[in-house]
Amino acid sequence: MSFHLHGVFLGLLLSMISSEQHILASPVDYLKGVGPQRGEMLKKELNIFTFGDLLHHFPNRHIDRTKVSAIADISPDTDYIQVAGVLVRSEVIGEKRNRRLVAELRDKTGSLELTWFQGVTWVQKMLEPGQSYLVYGKVGFFLGRPQIVHPETEKWTPQKKEGQAWLEPVYPTTEKLKARSLGGRQLGKITQVLLAQLRERDIPENLPASMLSKLRLPSRFRAYQDIHFPTSPKAYADALRRLKFEELFLAQLRMNLLRSERHRYSKGVVFDQVGEHFNRYYHEFLPFALTGAQKRVLKEIRQDTARGRQMNRLLQGDVGSGKTIVALLTMLLALDNGYQAVLMAPTEILSRQHYETISKQLEGMDIPVRLLTGSVKGKERKEILAGLASGEIALLIGTHAVIEDKVQFHRLGLVIIDEQHRFGVEQRARMWKKAVLPPHVLVMTATPIPRTLAMTAYGDLDYSIIDELPPGRQPITTVHRYEHDRGRVMDFIRAELELGRQAYIIFPLIEESEKLDYENLMRGYETVKSYFPEPKFWISMVHGRQPADQKEWNMQRFVSNDTQIMVSTTVIEVGVNVPNASVMVIESTEKFGLSQLHQLRGRVGRGAEKSYCILLTGQKLGKDARERIKIMVSTSNGFEIAEKDLELRGPGDIEGTRQSGMLPFRLADIVQDRPILEAARAMAIAIVEEDPELVSAENLRLKEFLTAQKGKTPWSRIS
Ligand code: ADP
Ligand code: MG
Q1: What is the dotted CATH code of the domain comprising 67-159?
Q2: What single-letter DSSP state applies at residue 697?
Q3: Which residues line ligand 1 at a C-beta cut-off of 6 Å?
Q4: Radius of gyration of the chain from its Cα atoms, rounded to whole angstroms
Q5: Are 564 and 539 within 8 A, CB to CB?
Q6: Residue 16's pLDDT band (cuts 50, 70, 90)
Q7: Is the pTM of this model over 0.85?
Q8: Alpha carbon of residue 43 to chain centroid
Q9: Could you tell me the distance, in angstroms and rounded to a whole number, from the CA of residue 646 to the centre of ligand 2?
């Protein structure tokens, strides 16, 4: 009985608390001046469902209300403008789609046309000829005359602006909302209503007081007020800085807490011995001296795997930086500690290549290595599965076939994933289930990720970099040539082939349709063939439409130098190793992104010979394409290229980010706000190091805030 009562009471109490806490969760319809109809529009058009969503719909600029321009000052360079004048006439003209409302606004200096295509009847009813209006909008020119399409208008008397905020917010909006008087400025009116209702406790502070004073940040409550209705440009700048910092800091804090939790509580297999296999290989079979970077990374891996917790490490190294040997040595380490190890690659070709390299390198060591891909079938497959289950097979190399449920390991201790971005997080998680203690995970990628992005998208992983190429590599010469140079480019290829080398010619995926791409490639192939009629030159072709075995066969012929030219789409992009190839020609280079170009170029320059990369383009190039080509010609440093790529394209498109959801920032831009990001990260790390459970009085707010957020969708929807 008493339990029952307690339950009711508790429930009541909770609902009281939550109804107070969640004023920001109230449906936007409930806001005064919104109502069900406009509420519906706000949801549909801007994804604004709640008070909180509206609070987070930030203005994209502010206009100085005190500044009214003269119509005569409008020039072709004018962008947005605010003018005031008398509405001298308005009329509906045109038929059907062309039906529009045209009005004329006149001030002392001239006249301006205002046009509406939507909500024509309704707007016309609202406008009163003879009345003065304050008009705001984007100026366009129609038949040489300035006009504003769908302007924002309000009745105006010169005195009215007094007492208003100095800077008025303008919000992103849509044409439909504009027609419903929820234009860029009108959204400010309902936001103002909302802000007037909010108390300090509705937007409680979540950062430690010392941090606020150290960084001179305004309170959270103040910042939300000022980002919408600042009293001065400085107040706005401070509010923006505060909210950006908060976003970045909380994201960093969450990731570093996760990482620290994993470090403290996760259990993993222990690799605490460097034993016979590792040592023997290292001293007797290692084909070259390791670079300093390779040694450093190995040391990081050894420390990480010896501690008794699971390693979760991302290894980045530019193409050709020598990640395979690091993988092999780590596998031997697993073996020395009595565990099996797996190396996964995204394609059949790549896993075969790994298998061949590694088998060769292990010759004389008597270590059982096997290859398991989709095409391994029947008796051989059975035998491999049995060998893995009994523990007889120590090292397994393969495609995703190795994570199928049928594959059982005796004692799996290490999983290495090459070219990470092709394996999903989910696939990785499936590996865990294959062992009692989760195996160590090393994810290798040759897609350099800019530091800023790595900090945000991979902040919860540990992270190693091979930032040094093996000695003696000759730099690849990269040049830009136009379509009309094709003849000379082909002659150059011929000269290289005469010297015994091989060449790649890569075609982009241009069209949306696979069929058109295919036809495009075929035409390219025919052209190449016509340039090389000699019977001594053979051409391979590989593309996405070929069945796997045919692709494999064509690739293999190029690898073994039975064919000298490889015509291909980007399917050969990652990892393929043909050291004898010395020329990489990229067709329609303007269609490729920077990191893809960098990957493609990395297919040459892998042997002792001087290598060349030729970027072919059409005559006309856009600004971005020109920039990309300039970067490719001027540097071969993958990290530098990745940084530029991030600058050019923005973080959303960069390969190697897990999902755009990893960068859920409304305000912060990790490229432009890098200094804020660095500061936020440093502070988050310091806090986690000092107080990993956030128990100090100083960090209590943070803890409360994070706990409240946990498992709860934030105020707005996740799209
Ligand atoms: P990636 O990092 O792109 O996977 P690989 O592991 O395929 O690079 O190595 C590229 C080439 O460099 C291989 O031929 C490899 O044998 C060679 N290599 C790797 N490390 C060294 C080193 N320390 N000294 C000389 N050659 C090396
Ligand atoms: Mg590799």
Answers
A1: 2.40.50.140
A2: G
A3: 288, 290-291, 294, 317, 319-325, 446, 470, 577, 606
A4: 32
A5: yes
A6: very low
A7: no
A8: 27
A9: 23
